[in-house]
Amino acid sequence: MSNPLEIVVKESISELRALQRKQIDLISKRIEMLIIIKQNEKLGGISKRDLSTKTGTNHNSITKWRKQYLKSGIQALLVHGRKGFKPSVVSKKEHQAIEKMLHNPKNNLQGYKELVEWFKTEFGKDIKYTTLNEYCKRHFNSKVKVARKSHVKKDETAVEAFKKNSVTKLLTSL
């Protein structure tokens, strides 16, 4: 078995602990690794496997972090390098159109398949069923089967006539 890689940590343990308190969890594990290395400097170093078990991270990450520290110092460990999230497939204009369509009680949509077809014809853009399904659930709290507020083919004049007649009948019966 080979000797562990000897790394000389320039920062003191108190500086590292202060820095660790200010960082997010992703970065604090890296600083914790440096603290453990600093504590074991007098013993001749510590292996990546031991560092892995003490920090609770994969040994490949330990190897990568040690190389980063040797090459560029502590500043390289303080940057996690993750980028943001992927941009949304649905634009703001499309979002508003979907919202209008879902909240319209007169639409003829029976489910998400018809919503996907409507989206394709309206915007000329292909979108996967699961993508649109999850998007609608996340942004509009929609469900596959929802009772409509009103029937699609309901005649509004008949409703008004019914309400008018039922009120007059109710008043005459009293």
Structure, explained:
The chain has 174 residues and is mainly alpha-helical. It folds into two domains: 13-77, no CATH class; 85-146. Helix content is 60%, strand content 0%. The mean pLDDT is 85. The protein is elongated.
Write out key terms for the chains shown:
elongated, 2 domains, 9 helices, mainly alpha, 174 residues, 0% strand
Layout of helices and strands:
Blueprint: H1 13-22, H2 25-39, H3 48-55, H4 59-72, H5 74-77, H6 92-103, H7 112-123, H8 129-140, H9 156-173
Measured between the Cα atoms of the first and last residue, the distance is 100 Å
Sequence of secondary-structure elements:
HHHHHHHHH
How many DSSP H or I helices? 9
Helix content: 55-70%
Radius of gyration: 31 Å
- Averaging pLDDT over every residue, what do you get? 85
> Percent of residues in beta strands?
under 5%
How is the main sheet built?
Answer: none
Unreliable stretches (pLDDT < 50, length at least 5) are: none
> How many individual β-strands?
0
Q: What is the oligomer described by this structure?
A: single chain
Structural class: mainly alpha
What is the total number of structural domains?
2
What is this entry, summarized?
This protein is mainly α. It is built from 9 helices and no strands. The radius of gyration is 31 Å and the shape is elongated.
